[in-house]
Amino acid sequence: MHKIDVIGIGAINIDYIYYPKTLPDRESKITEGGGEDLEFQRDDLLRSIRSYHYQQIPRAVQVGGSAYLAIKTIDAIDDKLKTSFIGVCGTPTKDDLELGFNISMEDEVSFLHNREFLFFSDRPCGLSEVLIKHGTRYANNINAGSNDELHRRLVEHPSNSSLTSYLASARWIHISSLCDFDQFVYVFELMKKPRRLILF
Q1: Which residue of 62, 73, 172, 198 has the smallest Cβ count within 10 Å?
Q2: Does the structure show a pLDDT above 80 at 34?
Q3: Between these two residues, 189 and 150, which has the higher pLDDT value?
Q4: Topology (CATH) of 4-199
Q5: Would strands 126-133 and 136-143 be described as parallel, antiparallel, or unpaired?
Q6: Would you call 80 helix, strand, or coil by DSSP?
């Protein structure tokens, strides 16, 4: 019997998703093919989000991150499956509250069946500005925020030696949206030991 059905590993962001009728003038900063750009400074990203906010461009605001949303969807489809997530939950800032983000991060992750390796940080949440036009994603501009703490948190965790067995207790592991290469290498090496199915 598996301890956990599926573990997600990745970033947890606040997603500001905008649906502009025309693309912004700063097209040179839009990633080709709607890819992800992690190079944005937080202040620059907030300035851009505020601009869309005050223009009253239609939007949605949610807690996101590819692996996180996959785990949340799995739980919504079948809440009998035991779900877990390995990541860092930041703290919404005054800016986030002013922009209409009023979700409790504790409440948001309460659906998870196991939170042994889900960490909470006083640093700002990861921030994501998504532009969608005619159903196509034109950009996903990201500031990592507290997501970049994951590698350190895992290495320093008192139960670090049990992380491999924790991963081995899952039927499936879904990994995506890690913030830096060191995180990816560390987590991937751990996952190779249990020899479980890995989804990208």
Answers
A1: 73
A2: no
A3: 150
A4: UDP-N-acetylmuramoyl-L-alanine:D-glutamate ligase (3.40.1190)
A5: antiparallel
A6: coil
